[in-house]
Amino acid sequence: MTTDFAVKIEQWYKQHKRALPWRETSDPYCIWLSEIILQQTRVEQGRAYYERFVDTFPTVRELAAASEETVLLLWQGLGYYSRARNLHKAARQIAALGAFPSDYAAILSLPGVGTYTAAAIASFAFGLPYAVLDGNVFRVLSRYFKVETPIDSTEGKKEFKALAEELLDKKHPSLYNQAIMDFGAVVCKPSGPECVLCPLCGSCMAYAHNRVQQLPVKAKKMKQKTRCLSYVYVSTPKEEVLIKKRAGNDIWKGLYEFPLVESDEGLSLSSLQQRFPVGKWSLLEHGFVHQLTHQRLLVNFYRLELPKKDSSLQGVWVKKSELQNYAFPQLLVKLLSRGL
Ligand code: SF4
Left, alpha or beta for 315 (phi > 0: left; psi -120 to 50: alpha)? Predict the structure, then answer.
């Protein structure tokens, strides 16, 4: 039976839904692509990337056939690069299967696909009755039903999952899931929800008890970490520049960067000169702040002009004009755009 809650949300959606390219298709490849891009990205920013990916790789086979470097270059600026690497891995798996998997368990087993994304693809592309549970849905449910259990606790996750499944319109799972997510993004927003215009206002428990601003409840606060990075732009008179591919299990794995020294405090020009007393050193940028979700990066950017390539330095020498062919973290793209 469709609940009154579902009916109202769906009615609202039919009148107010945002026109987005991935809504106009039931192609699982396009839906999957949009969901991976939107995992940690706002719709407005994600849209341009979605269009770029669909234009470059119209089918999953074309994405699978591309190199990881091409995929990372196209992803440049979106952040959370593990999404791009998983997207590429999953594309190869799907291409090997011959078709996009059409059952929930198989979708969930793809790299980079969690329960939310699997439910979204299963319902949007295949009409399967799986309820989505993302930040928007947690917020709408916790407010409308005044659920005070922390959404990031084990108990909360169970409670909200059960509630979301109970409310799902099983005859129209795609419509219902898109409706509740859009409603959370447009009306029941994190700050400044539009309660006065909200079609659910008359029966909303948080509104009735003046608890809208306090809900949803979160148990843990994420700790913010500060890192001091000193990047060195090493160049020669022939416009050769030294770059290196990032490895290890850290941010920006697989992307390129300039030689880097990470330290507890930002390194001064004189300490770098002492460590490497050749060439001509200069400071390009001091104390540049770059904010990631859980990390604050404090960056000094130096230039070292060498008379010629030094083969004792680790990395790859490339032409300055070719730097655009390599995927760099957005931080370095910004620093480069300020001129050298
Ligand atoms: S009345 Fe306000 S808090 Fe309640 S569902 Fe509507 S927008 Fe959200």
Answer: left
Residue with the bigger pLDDT between 223 and 119: it is 119
| Cβ-proximal residues to 6 (8 Å cutoff; 6+ apart), any chain | 167, 168, 169, 176
Q: What are the chain's domains? A: 4-208 (1.10.340.30), 225-337 (3.90.79.10)
Q: What is the dihedral of CA 340, 69, 104, 186, to 10 degrees?
A: 20
327, 244 Cβ separation under 8 angstroms: no
pTM: 0.81
Going by alpha carbons, the residue nearest to atom 8 of ligand 1 is 188
* Cβ of 215 below 6 Å from ligand 1: no
pLDDT band at 248 (very low <50, low <70, confident <90, very high): confident
- Structure-block tokens of residue 99: 């078709």
At residue 185, does pLDDT exceed 70?
A: yes
C-alpha closest to that of 63 among 25, 105, 102, 112: 112
Q: 186 with 16: CB under 8 angstroms?
A: yes
201 in contact with ligand 1, CB cutoff 6 A: yes
Average pLDDT over residues 225-230: 92
Contact 256, 242 (CB under 8 A): no
**Catalytic residue list contains 35:** yes
Contact 85, 68 (CB under 8 A): yes
Given a contact cutoff of 8 angstroms between Cβ atoms, the answer to whether 123 and 132 are in contact is yes
